[in-house]
Amino acid sequence: MVLKMDEWFIFALVAILLWGLWGFFPKLASNYLESKSLLVYEVLGVALMGFIIFASIGFKPQFHTKGFIFALLTGIAGTSGLLFFLWALSKGRASVVVTMTALYPLVTIVLASLILKEPITFKQGIGIIFALISMILLAG
Predict the structure, then answer these.
(1) How far apart are CA 53 and CA 50, in angstroms?
(2) Which of 29, 52, 64, 65 is deepest in the core (most CB within 10 A)?
């Protein structure tokens, strides 16, 4: 039997793998660098990837004012969150910090529900409750 996977599923699996490494490598780096220096070097890695993507589209990015503003806010929020993640990781156990901070979709779910009016199903609500319980158990 041949299992046919949709393209999005393969991309999602690669993202999980890469994000797993993204959560693991900083713990190793924090053994040698303080958090702010680590952030600077990580941002250089982001800039390198940005340049590669920029080159792949022929140095002609699409532009829309609102899209640009939200993308800029994404970078600010992500980098600021990353700094706090690195501070937490330098003081805590990687297995706990990475797992707890991986619950960030809860914020997205609440914002999507409140602002975008996306409904939360009963099953999803139960999942949110379990996620909050897991955060309490992890932190304790």
Answers:
(1) 5
(2) 29
Amino acid at 13: L
**Which stretches in the chain have pLDDT values below 70?**
1-4
Q: Is the dihedral of CA 26, 28, 34, 38 positive or negative?
A: negative
Residue type, 75: G
CA 3, CA 13: separation in Å to the nearest integer?
Answer: 15
pLDDT in tens, 69-83: 999 999 999 999 999
**Whole-structure pTM over 0.70, yes or no?**
yes
In the 3-class helix/strand/coil scheme, how is the chain assigned residue by residue? CCCCCCHHHHHHHHHHHHHHHHHHHHHHHCCCCCHHHHHHHHHHHHHHHHHHHHHHCCCCCCCCHHHHHHHHHHHHHHHHHHHHHHHHHHHCCHHHHHHHHCCCHHHHHHHHHHCCCCCCCHHHHHHHHHHHHHHHHHHC
What gap in Å lies between CA 129 and CA 137, rounded to an integer? 12
Half-sphere exposure of 122 (CA within 13 A, CB side): 0
Q: d(Cα 104, Cα 97) in Å, to the nearest integer?
A: 12
